[in-house]
Design goal:
globular, mainly alpha, 52% helix
C-alpha cells in the first residue's frame, strides 16, 4: 500500500526522467530560444510531483510546453520520451466513445451553406 508520494513508484520514475532531461538539456551545446521556458517547466513538473499527487491534465500541459520549448532536437528525444512515459503512468487521457468523439463533445458538422454546389 502506498502511503505517501515518496513511496509511489510513479513519482520516482517521473522524477528520474525529469532529472535526466534536465541534465541533457543543460549539456546541450546549442542554444535553444526557449531553453529557459523548458528549464522552468521541468522545475515546475518536478515540484508538482514532489508535493503531492499531481493532476494528469496539468502533467500533460507541462509535457506539451516542454516539448514545444525543446523543439525537434533529436538528442533530447529519448529523454523527452521517458518523461512522457512517466506521465502516462499517472493515467491515460480519456479516450473518445466509439466513432472517435471525446466525451462531452459533439462531432463537427459543417454549416448548411457549406453543403451547396461547388463552383470550382
Amino acid at each position: 500500500m502506498v502511503t505517501g508520494v515518496e513511496e509511489d513508484a510513479r513519482v520516482q520514475v517521473l522524477r528520474g526522467a525529469v532529472a535526466r532531461l534536465r541534465r541533457q538539456l543543460a549539456m546541450l551545446p546549442v542554444e535553444l530560444p526557449d531553453r529557459a521556458a523548458a528549464d522552468e517547466e521541468l522545475a515546475a513538473l518536478d515540484a508538482m510531483v514532489s508535493h503531492g499527487m499531481p493532476e494528469v491534465p496539468r502533467l500533460r500541459r507541462s509535457l506539451l510546453l516542454i516539448a514545444g520549448a525543446v523543439g525537434s532536437v533529436s538528442a533530447l528525444s529519448p529523454a523527452l520520451t521517458e518523461v512522457r512515459e512517466g506521465i502516462d503512468r499517472f493515467g491515460e487521457l480519456p479516450r473518445g466513445r466509439e466513432g472517435g468523439t471525446p466525451p462531452g463533445r459533439e462531432a463537427y458538422t459543417p454549416p448548411s451553406w457549406a453543403e451547396g454546389p461547388r463552383l470550382f
